[in-house]
Amino acid sequence: MKLLRVGARGAERPAVLDANARVRDLSGVFKDVTPDWLAGGGCGALRNLNVEKLPLLPSDLRIGAPVSGVGKIVCVGLNYSDHAAESGMQAPEEPILFLKAGHTVQGPNDEIVIPQRSKKTDWEVELGVVIGRRALYVSEADALDYVAGYCVCNDVSERAFQLERGGQWDKGKNCDTFGPLGPWLVTVDEITHPQNLRLWLDVNDRRFQDGTTSTMIFGVRYLVHYISQFMPLEPGDIISTGTPPGVGLGQKPPVYLQPGDHIHLGIEGLGEQHQRVIASE
Asked: N or C: which end of the chain has fewer CB within 10 A?
């Protein structure tokens, strides 16, 4: 099932795609795709729903992030060995973790704002893992039982803030608009092999990233298990699992986003994002 949230920012309603990719209104069934709804088994409760009987919605409505009230995004750095190499860094022996706060989350097609004083704003297409119930100290064997579904993430990053300003990576990862999610939360019954998905990203119609989740150093199952040893994963949290090679930092010479650029990215089975880049006011 492909769940989405549509409408003006802050007033989104839940919806679902039918077999013909038309948007159907779910607001008469439940209020929103929230952490509490996920924790209560909301995705499972929809399995027997006759989607074709739901009201149709206009296809041109704005799409919001597929989950409301995301608490945190746990990002995994350098999780593709070829991306580590292009960044001039060694492939890690254990997952590198950093956090993005919920304020970065926005819809998949909302504008990306280049921060003030930024010169090195960059892109990263990533597989997002949506947590469906609280996970703490879970085994690797049971880890996927805590996953509600998957989505597309663009882990937008400001490289100078991230790598040249001291401290940890957070300064370059938590700028406003740096966490586009969606368009859909695709439930686990549709994505049975998360380690075999193609992902790609274009800037101004030029293909920069073209990879597959099969080349992750640490797979989804291991990441859910590993992260839960250090912090609880709550319903509605997102794990952003790392990016394949082709980021702007890795180009020779480096290429960074400029106002007016258009980003187009997607993951097989999970949909596509389109973002226009604008300057900060």
From this structure: C
Task: Note whether 106 and 179 are within 8 A (CB).
Answer: yes
Write down the pLDDT at residue 81. 82
What does the angle CA 125 – CA 139 – CA 226 come to, to the nearest 5 degrees? 40
38: tokens are 């996920």
In a domain, 192, yes or no: yes
Q: Please give the model's pTM, rounded to 2 decimal places.
A: 0.96
Q: Is residue 13 part of a domain?
A: no
> Do you find a cis peptide bond into 253, omega within 30 degrees of 0?
yes
CA distance 37 to 31: 9
Count how many domains the chain has.
1
117 conformational bin, left if phi > 0, alpha if psi -120 to 50, beta if neither: left
Assigned domain for 60 exists? no
Sole residue written with tokens 């293909």: 207
Q: Tokens in use for 174?
A: 């938590």
State phi, psi for 52 to the nearest 5 degrees.
-65, -15
Q: What is the pLDDT of residues 190-241, one digit of tens each?
A: 998 999 999 999 999 999 999 999 999 999 999 999 999 999 999 999 999 9
CA-closest candidate to residue 64, choices 121, 116, 14: 14
Residue 230's region, left for phi above 0, alpha for psi from -120 to 50, else beta, is: alpha
Instruction: Count the neighbouring beta carbons within 10 Å of the beta carbon of residue 78.
Output: 18
